[in-house]
Amino acid sequence: MMKTIAITGGTGAQGGGVANIMLKTPGWKVRAITRNTNSDKARNLASQGAEVVQANFNDENSLFKAFEGANAIFAVTNFWEHLFTGKTQEQSGAIEEDKRAEKATKGKVRVPHLDYKAKVDDRIKSELPDLAKKATYLFFGYYPSNMAFLPALKPFEYPGAFGKYIQLLPTPSTAKIPVSGDMTVTPGIWVRQILANPSKSLGKYADVAPEILTFGEMMEMWSEVTGRQGIFVECSQEDFEKIWGPAGNEMAMQFKFGELLDDWHEGYDFVGMEELEIKAEEVPGFRKAIEGLKGLL
Ligand SMILES: NC(=O)c1ccc[n+]([C@@H]2O[C@H](COP(=O)([O-])OP(=O)(O)OC[C@H]3O[C@@H](n4cnc5c(N)ncnc54)[C@H](OP(=O)(O)O)[C@@H]3O)[C@@H](O)[C@H]2O)c1
């Protein structure tokens, strides 16, 4: 009997990567959840054999319906959409905070989106113990696709500089960050292996991040792949916020958090790649991801 995985954010980066792999996983059917079943991405999923259903995070009943009969659920946290419209968090509704970032950096930095997600985990554990027994919590690293699709992180051609490109970020080029690899593949490999290894993964955290790289290393690989000279330039948090508004400030706080924290795993019970039987050759890293995006960089 085939099992069904219901995927929220199936038209997005994380959920799209999960759908891509689970559509090819024997024994599983994919139900992709979207607000708009007529979008190009939704139609594309349907053409690959996914059941595409309409639901909205702001309408609980629509989610109950979309999850009916599912054997597994991939749930994405949606935080940034309102910030990218230029609204502040206060304008978008109060958020509950867990102060994860503040605790981990001994009060040096506050990162609302990390706190908000930690609060989701806390509520599952304290208010929904039956769900907590069946849940695995995923951390994602920095997406290589940010350099193609996210204006604030995409290198831009500097006018009059003989074809040189700049990536302007509020962090040093030597700062390290976990990187998620090819987002069309890695999320799905992790989810497939978590589902195949429940005794190893239930109740634990897993890191969808096959590599840790510096921003300078990523810019170097970007240059090698594109054949353009890319230069990483550090700016202040204040200037980044002036350019990108509240979303820029939120990103800058995330980068500061990364600079201050050596070990993202501290305080969490993690199940690693090896334990989940994920082979390195199955999860394309930054370079492969950038090669795949070459026409869009
Ligand atoms: N960029 C990075 O480097 C990075 C790294 C680590 C973690 N993250 C985290 O990734 C998360 C976002 O995931 P993503 O990158 O996969 O997002 P994404 O590519 O922007 O896609 C968002 C998805 O959420 C769905 N969605 C949004 N609002 C919805 C609503 N009200 N009801 C139902 N569905 C809704 C959208 O579906 P429709 O539009 O089709 O309805 C879409 O499929 C954020 O929490 C972010 O912090 C990002």
From TrEMBL:
Keywords: NADP. Pfam families: NmrA. It comes from the Eukaryota. The keyword Cell cycle does not apply. Residues 2-80, 101-255 form the NmrA-like domain. SUPFAM superfamilies: NAD(P)-binding Rossmann-fold domains. InterPro entries: NAD(P)-bd_dom_sf, NmrA-like, NmrA-like_oxidored. One of its GO terms (cellular component) is nucleus. Belongs to the NmrA-type oxidoreductase family. This is NAD(P)-binding protein. It comes from Zopfia rhizophila CBS 207.26. The lineage of its organism: Eukaryota, Fungi, Dikarya, Ascomycota, Pezizomycotina.
